[in-house]
Amino acid sequence: MVFSNTVVDVGALPAAEGATFTPPPPAYFRMLRLQWYITAVVLLLPAIACISFIENLQTPLLISITFLGWLVLCAAYYFLLFKSASVKGYAIREHDVALRHGWPVLQTEWMPFNRVQNCTQEMGPLERRFGLATLKLFTAGSDGADISIGGLPQETAAALRTFILSRINATA
Which residues pair with 118 in a beta bridge? Predict the structure, then answer.
């Protein structure tokens, strides 16, 4: 047996950047806004409890600093949440699925269909309220989902799940 290790012409490879990514629907941003409201209230409750029950914290300066800290924290969370959601998108191509997400570090994950072992559709309470679902793709040997596409309309998630499962069965 002769060992061969030829050089691959990088220019001849198919362009991954040519994929058109589908952004999340407007309902996804409404769901994120509600999630942000809930988080802001949950962060405010311990601060109010501490100020109410600890007399040493009941000075105008400490109350102002606590409220300002809460305000900065909530504003930063809102900014990061919506900035990362604005670049989020998915692409389904003939042989693979891609997910683009993250800010300030933009990540693009590609998974060929021949690596997918299972595909599930999940809906949390907020997702059900807004008619959304999360599609999770699993490969062999992983504990959790390798790619998780959140914020899909329920009908789209179901159709993509059916398509991906048919692709898995076709390659098996």
Answer: 138
Gyration radius of the chain over CA positions: 22
Q: What's the angle, vertex CA 103, arms to CA 14 and CA 13, rounded to 5?
A: 5
* Other Cβ atoms closer than 10 A to 168: 17
Question: Is the Cβ–Cβ distance between 117 and 140 less than 8 Å?
Answer: yes
Tokens of 19: 């994929």
Model confidence at 172, in pLDDT bands (50, 70, 90)? low
* CA pair distance 170, 172, nearest whole angstrom: 6
Q: Which residues pair with 133 in a beta bridge?
A: 152
Closest listed residue to residue 113, CA positions, set 169, 32, 43: 169
DSSP per-residue codes, 23-67: PPPHHHHHHHHHHHHHHHHHHHHHHHHHHHH-GGG-SHHHHHHHH
Cα gap 33→24, rounded to integer Å: 14
Mean pLDDT of 124-143: 90
Asked if 103 contacts 114 with a C-beta cutoff of 8 angstroms, the reply is: no
pTM of the model: 0.80
Contact between 127 and 31 (Cβ < 8 Å): yes
